[in-house]
Amino acid sequence: MNLFRFAGDILHLLSILVLLLKIHATKSCAGISLKTQELYLAVFITRYLDLFWNFHSLYNSVFKVVYIGTTSMIVWYMRRHRNVKLTYDRDHDTFRYLFLVAPCAVLSLLINARYNLFEILWTFSIYLEAVAILPQLVLLQRTKNVDNLTGNYVFLLGLYRAFYILNWVYRFATEPGYSAWLVWISGLIQTGLYLDFFYYYVQAWKQSKKLQLPS
Amino acid sequence: LTEGKFHDEL
User: What is the DSSP string of B1-10?
Assistant: First the structure.
């Protein structure tokens, strides 16, 4: 465990909490992609299946439970809460799950470190996390005017990924024999998806303007 | 599953 990894995990948690608090406080989920949230829930469940038999540390176990719990709450709010579900922008959140899930499933069967069910599900979760933000980015693009909290949510998520890259660089430099190609390449692709958004986010922040994405 | 590579990151 190093400071970069810790910062990454905290930023990840913070991003989820920002979203959850926004939904809870405003009783609105306008601008939030349910597809992305459900994909993240699938990512967490397939990756953290080992929660019950692979104990690594209390830190990891607590984070796993909290990530699954908080993301479930977001999905519950968007699908079931009587007021919140009415604000869901389903007409614009039209990204097809299959376009992301199917290639990730095939890829995880073809490229994995070990051919067994849990390793393949773990690999699937790594691939799926890399692209799970896409429905959210498409929704932001479509609705143009991005409210502050949604913008902050995506920004914090991107920052979390950036810190994970620093964590890998640090581990590679300090831990003999450490390598994780599959995770590195997926992570680089994932972080790459945020670059465009980051550019506009920083521009808006510099000019202290409302974040607006170009068409 | 516990032998070999261990997934220690989240």
Answer: --SS------
Nearest to B1 among A9, A47, A54 (CB): A54
Task: Give buried/exposed letters for A149-164 (b at 16+ CB in 10 A, else e).
Answer: bbbbbbbbbbbbbbbb
Tell me the domain boundaries of chain A.
Answer: 3-207
Nearest CA in chain A to B9: A60
Nearest to B6 among A5, A56, A118 (CB): A56
More confident residue, A183 or B5: A183
In this predicted structure, what is the pLDDT of residue B3? Answer: 39
Of the candidates A115, A129, A131, A111, which has an alpha carbon nearest to the alpha carbon of residue A181?
Answer: A111
**Tens digit of each residue's pLDDT (9 = 90 or more) over A57-80:** 999 999 999 999 999 999 999 999
CB contact under 8 A, B9 and A183: yes
Comparing C-alpha atoms, which of A175, A176, A214 is closest to residue A196?
A: A214
Residue linked to tokens 């829930």: A41
| Separation of alpha carbons A83 and A19, rounded Å | 16
Mutate to test the interface with B, among A15, A119, A161, A184 (most CBs of B within 10 A): A119
